[in-house]
């Protein structure tokens, strides 16, 4: 029996455009210089308040970051509707999830810097809520790369970290997996480079979702 824990943004769904537009409007509201798309991509995976602080070069969260986080959250669904943006699945993701969802030797979960509401929306939009039996979000645990998201999913499902595989596109996913004692698979279609994923502990790289399947055999 194995536990597969998937990151969401950049791994299952392509949400960079939506995140960046919401971030751009937030920075504009607070009179800040608009972030570059590359700046936004670099923080995807972190919990939102930490991400906003880091984009401003701050090592710690300050009151302004908390206020900007609240504004971002209030905007997110509005921007999603404005852009008619539904955080599309990356090509091949649906087929991969369909292939593993019926296996009796595999449990599927999510570990994400999204809010619980945001994750639920993605799961419902794409019909994945019936397959993912465990999840931890930014509302539940410290931000990645802290290992709590992984260890709490392991505890809830009765699985050992050694039998757990974290699949993600960010260096924070790789670092989190290693800190928890789990295997880390980096995906090449997300927001970090393959070299960055390898340097931060990836045990393997998947260049297409169907390549993930062999790691569950």
UniProtKB/TrEMBL annotation:
Pfam families: HAD_2. GO terms for cellular component: cytosol. It comes from the Bacteria. Its EC number is 3.1.3.18. One of its GO terms (biological process) is DNA repair. Signal peptide: none annotated. InterPro entries: HAD-like_hydrolase_sf, HAD-like_sf, HAD-SF_hydro_IA, HAD_2, HAD_sf, PGP-like_dom2. This is HAD family hydrolase.
């Amino acid at each position: 029996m194995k536990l597969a824990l998937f990151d969401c943004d950049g791994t299952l769904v392509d949400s960079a455009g939506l995140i960046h537009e919401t971030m751009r409007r937030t920075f504009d509201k607070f009179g800040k210089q608009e972030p570059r798309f590359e700046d936004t991509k670099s923080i995807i995976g972190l919990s939102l308040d930490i991400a906003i602080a880091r984009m401003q070069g701050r090592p710690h969260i300050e009151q302004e970051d908390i206020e900007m986080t609240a504004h971002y959250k209030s905007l997110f669904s509005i921007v999603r509707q404005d852009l008619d943006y539904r955080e599309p699945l990356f090509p091949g993701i649906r087929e991969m999830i369909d292939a593993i969802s019926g296996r009796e030797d595999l449990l599927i979960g999510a570990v994400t810097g999204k809010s619980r509401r945001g994750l639920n929306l993605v799961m419902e939009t794409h019909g994945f809520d019936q397959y993912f039996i465990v999840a931890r979000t930014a509302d539940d645990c410290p931000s990645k790369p802290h290992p709590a998201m992984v260890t709490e999913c392991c505890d809830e499902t009765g699985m050992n970290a050694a039998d757990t595989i974290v699949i993600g596109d960010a260096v924070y996913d790789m670092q989190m997996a290693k800190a928890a004692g789990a295997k880390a698979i980096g995906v090449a279609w997300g927001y970090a480079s393959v070299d960055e994923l390898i340097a931060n502990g990836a045990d393997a790289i998947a260049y297409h979702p169907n390549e993930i399947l062999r790691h569950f055999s």
